[in-house]
Amino acid sequence: MIKPVILTGDRTTGPLHIGHYAGSLANRLRCQDSHEQFLLLADTQALTDNAHNPEKVRRSVMEVALDYLAVGIDPMRTTICLQSHLPALAELSMLYLNFVTVSRLERNPTIKDEIRARGFGRDIPAGFLCYPAAQAADITAFKATVVPVGEDQAPLIEQTNEIVRRINTAAEREVLPEALAVIPRSGRLPGIDGKAKMSKSGGNAIPLSASPDEIGAAVKAMFTDPNHLRIEDPGQIEGNVVFAYLDAFDDDKVTLEEMKARYQHGGLGDGTVKKRLEEILQALLAPIRQRREQLSQDPAFILDTIRQGTDHARERTEATKREVIESLGLFQL
Ligand code: TRP
């Protein structure tokens, strides 16, 4: 049986947090048997907005790989590979840039949002503006047909498919498959402060490596309903971070719905709800932290995993690159 190819990646800009777990890692664990899965340590993409901080990008490669392994990604079933060591991705990016216009890149909603968020103003690194073409190279080099990404990344997959159609038109045959963006239903986990996005740089994340005390402190500091002052007051669920996390991590939905009803009605204190969340997060993260500590004793194993995965990925991506070059009718030596 031929399994569909699934590709996702993470910019290597810091260790992963529970937002990554809810949004993608849990799904990646489920896909290990049903799909041929590749996980890309996207260090060259990380550099597009971190050129001033290559040390962070470099250090995070091992950190993210460690997080993958700690949550249970199995290198026998999932290929973990390093973007900067797959030259075909860079070469395909260069070819694809001829099939997109600058104005189309500037109109990409993901890029527009990120330019604003990063405050680039007029000083946009060219590599950053062009990263949709590079992400198209990532996806197509593996001939991935399934790409699970957050909602904010959907325009990148759309642009990938535009490039795919142009290449196929130029080649007069279907060299590359289109990819389907699979967006998690749950949406993005907010930061502990209630901001829309959990991020390490925002200081509002709970890393997968958090200690029991750090988890406790984070839950204690979590944003709830500022108007829910006394236990008997009615409380709000919308915008309440504790309930957003319970939605993501509490498997007992029946009890959760009861708690929500009681909270909204009045009579359920923040302390009780937080206690439940803390228990769930402690139970979720304890085995991950333990495996992370164990694995971090053996950096050679992690390095070897990345090396072997990257070797495997290199064969795959080189083959696609050759096919694209040939199909575009370039001179062959
Ligand atoms: N852009 C993704 C992120 O910021 C990372 C990424 C790079 C990616 N290449 C990819 C995701 C290919 C999916 C497919 O998280």
Describe what you observe in this structure.
- The protein is mainly alpha-helical and 333 residues long.
- Helix content is 56%, strand content 8%.
- It is built from 14 helices and five strands.
- The chain has helices at residues 18-34, 43-47, 54-71, 87-96, 102-107, 109-118, 126-129, 131-141, 154-171, 212-221, 241-249, 253-265, 270-296, 299-327; strands at 5-11, 36-42, 78-82, 146-148, 180-182.
- The strands form two sheets. The protein has a three-stranded parallel β-sheet. The chain has a two-stranded parallel ribbon with strand order 4-5.
- Strand 4, helix 9 and strand 5 form a beta-alpha-beta unit.
- Helix 3 packs across helix 14.
- The longest helix has 29 residues, at 299-327.
- It is globular.
- The relative contact order is 0.14.
- The model has no long low-confidence stretch (mean pLDDT 95).
- The structure holds tryptophan.
- Tryptophan binds next to strand 1, strand 2 and helix 8.
Chart the SSEs and their pairings.
Elements: E1 5-11, H1 18-34, E2 36-42, H2 43-47, H3 54-71, E3 78-82, H4 87-96, H5 102-107, H6 109-118, H7 126-129, H8 131-141, E4 146-148, H9 154-171, E5 180-182, H10 212-221, H11 241-249, H12 253-265, H13 270-296, H14 299-327
Parallel strand pairs: 1-2, 2-3, 4-5
Bound molecules: tryptophan.
